[in-house]
Specification:
mainly alpha; 100 residues
Length: 100
């Protein structure tokens, strides 16, 4: 099966996120190896993520975010209920039992 090309906006976002993770790691005085050990992956895998490699698994991204104390921020950043539009639309579109 041929892989589809990664859109440039996605590559750019991956690069930015990788840089942010690197900065968080450095602000905490951690090495790539220390983060890798906390996540249970290789140093090379964490390095790939920090360099914006879009093929690194979502579970690893979340594990690194957790190891750096940023998992809750990642979760909130995609929570539709944290936005005015999401809350308004949920009230008009989603059935009561789906809302929080």
């Amino acid at each position: 099966m041929a892989s589809r090309p990664t859109p440039s906006r996605v590559r750019g976002a991956a690069s930015d996120i990788g840089e942010y993770l690197t900065t968080w790691r450095k602000l905490q005085g951690l090495t790539v190896q220390q983060v890798a050990e906390r996540v249970g992956v290789t140093r090379q895998t964490v390095s790939r993520l920090e360099h914006g490699d879009t093929t690194v698994g979502f579970d690893i991204f979340l594990g690194v975010a957790n190891a750096l104390g940023q998992l809750d921020r990642v979760r909130l950043s995609v929570d539709p209920y944290e936005t005015e539009v999401g809350r308004i639309r949920a009230d008009t579109i989603l059935p009561k039992r789906v809302r929080r």
